Amino acid sequence: MSNPKVKRVGRYDLITPMLPCKDEILAGFERFLMSGRYILGEEVRQLEEDLANDCQVPAAVGVASGSSALFLALSVAGVRPGDEVITTPYTFDATMEAIILLDAVPVFVDIKPQDLNIDPARIAAAVTPKTRAILPVPIFGAPCDMNPILEVAAAHELEVITDMAQAWGTFYDGRPIGSCARMSTLSFYPTKNLPGIGDGGMIFCRDEQDAELIRRIRGHQPVRMNGHLYTGWNSRLDEIQAMVIRIRRERFADEQRDRDQVAAIYDSYIPAANRLQTPNGGAGMKVTYHQYWVRSGRRQELVELLDAEGIDTGVYYAPPLHKHQLAEYCRVSGPLTEADRAGREILTLPIHAALPFADAHRIGAMVGEFLAQEAASTPT
What we know:
Elements: H1 22-33, H2 42-55, E1 59-63, H3 66-76, E2 84-87, H4 93-101, E3 105-108, E4 131-135, H5 146-156, E5 159-163, E6 171-172, E7 175-176, E8 183-187, E9 201-205, H6 208-218, E10 223-225, E11 228-230, H7 239-249, H8 252-269, E12 292-295, H9 299-308, E13 331-332, H10 337-345, E14 346-349, H11 357-377
Parallel strand pairs: 2-3, 2-4, 3-13, 4-5, 5-8
Antiparallel strand pairs: 1-9, 6-7, 8-9, 10-11, 12-14
Helix pairs in contact: 1-7, 2-7, 3-4, 8-11
């Protein structure tokens, strides 16, 4: 039972980072309220341009949500009914849902224990004549090992779409993770590192032609491509969201430095075997720490210990997607041992731009001591 005298440390603080932006946001809102231009105006256009430049791609298209971004990107990449899309089972439901909504089949392969991302070495064995695309997800802001994924895709003539909903600011091999694939999708959900104040999404395109097709579809225009007629629908980013995101973008680097400092504090207490290890020893990599995770075989005990000290934690993807109710629409390729293990062992700690460093030290020390005791009591 938690101590009522202890001020709780939340996993998120959505208010404090907004305070320096409050007056600017309110002034912008009043300007829009009286303008009569609420959707797909200058704010959206400028946000698309700014983020495309940040991501080092020719074009970006704002849409209604991260989920919508996934659906549209897969559509434009040519995913048709009956096609297969290889992805990870250790991710949020939206990754799988977008594939299923296209009447395609998610194909799950296992993850790597070091970073919880899809294991490139297992992808080739999952390819069949029905495979159309690979959908890696840089989970919790950690970069997937993209080069071997792209090599498998090239060898089998597959498309690669990156679901980087949690990975704005993540770099792989010295470049933004969103520039590695044909298209990449982003979410602006309020808990994300680059947030709005509601739903919103973006699709990053290495080909301007893809971007133009998405612009048409999001505005209810049907598009014929890949031998198939796709219906248009409503997936437009509104001006208010774009304005807020643009304002928060100006503070992103400072807020990310605070997250990085919290992660560095945690790292100083938590054994390397119990936390993230990036591909290739971290060379050319940048993690954005949407979440900071630890691994424990006694997770529930750790949850209860931290809760008693007023510290909120998060359990993600337990069970993983191959055990989800929608798994009947999916296919599994090979054993998913590490995904199952992650579902049992992974716990996320508070990390956000407003977390006091003193709290990070306190949390890190408690978790590090718990993990040390766990390791000492575990038979080798």
